[in-house]
Each structure stands twice: as structure tokens, then as C-alpha cells.
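Model it.
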Amino acid sequence: MQRRSTHSVVSRRLVLAGGVAVTAMGLASCGDQQAPVDEQGRVRIRFATDWRAQAEHGGFYQALASGAYERRGLNVQIIQGGPGVNVPQLLASGAVELGMGSNSFIPMNLVAEGAPVKAVAAFFQKDPQVLIAHPDPELETIADLAGRPFLLADASISAFWVWLKAKYGFTDDQVRKYNFNPAPFLADERAVQQGYLTSEPYTIEKEAGFDPRVFLLADEGYPSYATMVLSPDGFARDNGAALRSFIAASAEGWRDYVRGDPTVADDLIKKANPEMTQDILDQARTKLSGNGIVDSGDAALYGLGTMTDERWQAFFDVTSQAGVYPADLRWRSAFTDAFLPGRG
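Modeled.
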């Protein structure tokens, strides 16, 4: 079960832009996107996550279980992701009103394809992407990984590897193919493996019996956001009050999940995803909290969900300079802070 869980997290992180062109066509033709209301007058919102229920979605489940959404006049249904589920496609088809964006590449790719969708909140100030190495006292920073083989999935090469090369001078000849199996990493003491803070390190600890050296890219300047709320422009236009309420309730949920009692959310997560276990949830939440994934940086100053022009520009600068996006891309169309608490 544990290895299957690890594969799950990595897989959903790497679906960067599948179906984006479909999204552009589908949403471009949409007219009125007024959300329906239920018999109690609450606005119905279906919110698609990027994978099966887990601690990385804990704040949303906390808001649902605690009644934070309902108290704000919302009837929220969380739609779990999974194999073959593509959040941009769900938004394009109207199957959901809002969706989750795993990292900053997703809304930027949507802009590149002309899709009218924006990130409206970022509940992970730090992208939990990590590099994992064997224990070695000489490894103090990511720079110390120079010359080592990197086990990377194909999609990572056009994602965070772009930043690593730009910042540290790593080269493509260091790349080895990663197939979501830790065996090659465990067999080579010099190997470096990609991972997610809340998943692969725990798997290695359990299966290999040692504590790996873990480098959180965000702590060395990687500018991507994570766990963003994506909204079609039409939905935001026609349901501004409901969108503000959804973001405010989600912020309350994330605050309580990482700093309060997560029991109600964990119970709902395990009910939604029977493969999830309490030990996995506990260690993941501890890492989210201990590393300031949700509430550090700008979120500590301006509130949970905060996004800034400076962060988005830093992300665009490094990716456009590497040729991922054209220099004239309208990158500011990837996000808006107009619906965050205290704005608008």
C-alpha cells in the first residue's frame, strides 16, 4: 500500500498540462457560468482535487467537515482526482466549478494555450518538491549534488529541472530515467531521486531503514506555488461572492488543519480514500506544519492563500529564460488576487 501511495503522489504532480488545449476551446465558448443553488439557497460548488484524498488536501476537507463552507452559504462537494483524471478537462467540460492546480506550471501553461482560467489562491506557499539523497555529512546544500546522477521522471525535466539547471549549473547528462520505483536509488549511494516532501522520504525510511538526506527546493529559492485554486474566468465573473467565500473558508480550513485538531478532516479523508492510513496522514501533516508549507513567507504577512506579482514574475523569468515559455507571454493572466480575503 505504501509504495502505491508514493506512486500516486508523484504521478499527479507530473500531470502538468494534459488537456490544456481542450480547456482553451471548451471554456472560450462558455457564456453564463452562474453556479446553481440548493434547496437551502446555498451555492453549489464542485471542487476537483489533483489526486485521491490525502493530507495534502487536508485544509479543504477540514473546511468541509467543520462546516466552514456551509457557514458561508456554500454547498461544496470535493471531487477526488485519480488515474486518468485531468483537472483542466473537468473545468473545460463544466463537470466542476473549481479545481486544484498542483504547481505554477499549470496556470502558466493554461495562459500559453489561451485558456480563460486563473489561479485565485495558493494554499502552499512552498512547493513540497524535494530532492532525496543518501545520508552523507558532506551534503549541506543542493549545490553539493553537482556531478551526481539524478533520477527524474520525464515531465520533471521541463519543470523543476529547468530551475535546478539555471541555479546550480546542473547538466542534462546527469539525468537518469525515474520510473517511480525506489530500487535504483537505493542501489546507488550517489544517486539523487526526485520526490514529494510528504511521501517518498517516508517510504524510504520505512522500506530501507535509513533517514535520507532531503532538500526542499523551496527553501533554496524555487519559486513555484502549489495547491492552488483554479477558477474559470466566467465562474469568477458571475460568482464573485461565492468564490471569495470558498477561498476564505478554505483558508480557515488550512489554518485549523496544520495548527489545530485535524481529526475531523482525517476521518473524512480516510472515508473518501480507504487506502489512506493514519500514520501516513500524521507524518505528512507534521511535515506540512514543520516546514511552513502553508503559512510561511507572504502568507504569514498577508494571510493564507496569498500570491504576489514578485513570486509569479520570478517563476516566469526563470522558465522563459530557459525557453519553456515565450518572452512575451502575458504571465500576469495566470493569476489574480482579487478574490483573496481583504481584497476586492
